[in-house]
């Protein structure tokens, strides 16, 4: 039969085992404490740090709300002005220069009057033509002021007169009448001979049909 004392461990061996277990447990506890301290510090840092978020809107005015341990949100209102660019219409006006033609005149060679010999019919026709274009300068060289006032009283532009010729009055060879016919009547230029057979319109008379 075996000795019962062989099944009982030695007292010294049991104590060493207990001390090893206790040492291990103590180490674990210390590590747990250190871990809790580290975790606690991390949580404190997170709580003391505020996060700032910048938001940009177009309608909300700027507002900041801060509470202990809360998140601060800064709202920024940005107004964008609509800019409309309008092209300015440019109108270019071209200046037009109108040059009026000089007034028509009778050729000087026909308006010789007292400067050269001129038959009475030529003088009468020159006076008539000067009237149709309102050439008083030429008329003054072949007619008296009385004759000019009588004829130029009316507008001669567009006049449709037909020359009928000249004839003496049968009394005085120095007096000749040159006639023009038109619709509704006739006009007679009384011609007076001057020195050197130069003729001049002395007067104008009108006869209605």
Outline of the structure:
This protein is of the alpha+beta class and about 210 residues long.
Structural summary, described in words:
- The protein is an alpha+beta fold.
- Helices cover 31% and strands 22% of the residues.
- It has four helices and six strands; from the N terminus they run H-E-E-H-H-H-E-E-E-E.
- The protein has helices spanning 11-48, 120-132, 136-142, 145-151, and strands at 52-57, 72-77, 162-168, 175-182, 185-193, 199-208.
- The strands form two sheets. Strands 3-4-5-6 form a four-stranded antiparallel beta sheet.
- Strand 4 (175-182) and strand 5 (185-193) form a beta hairpin.
- Helix 2 (120-132) packs antiparallel against helix 3 (136-142).
- The longest helix has 38 residues, at 11-48.
- The chain is rod-shaped.
- The model is unreliable at 48-73 and 75-80 (pLDDT under 50).
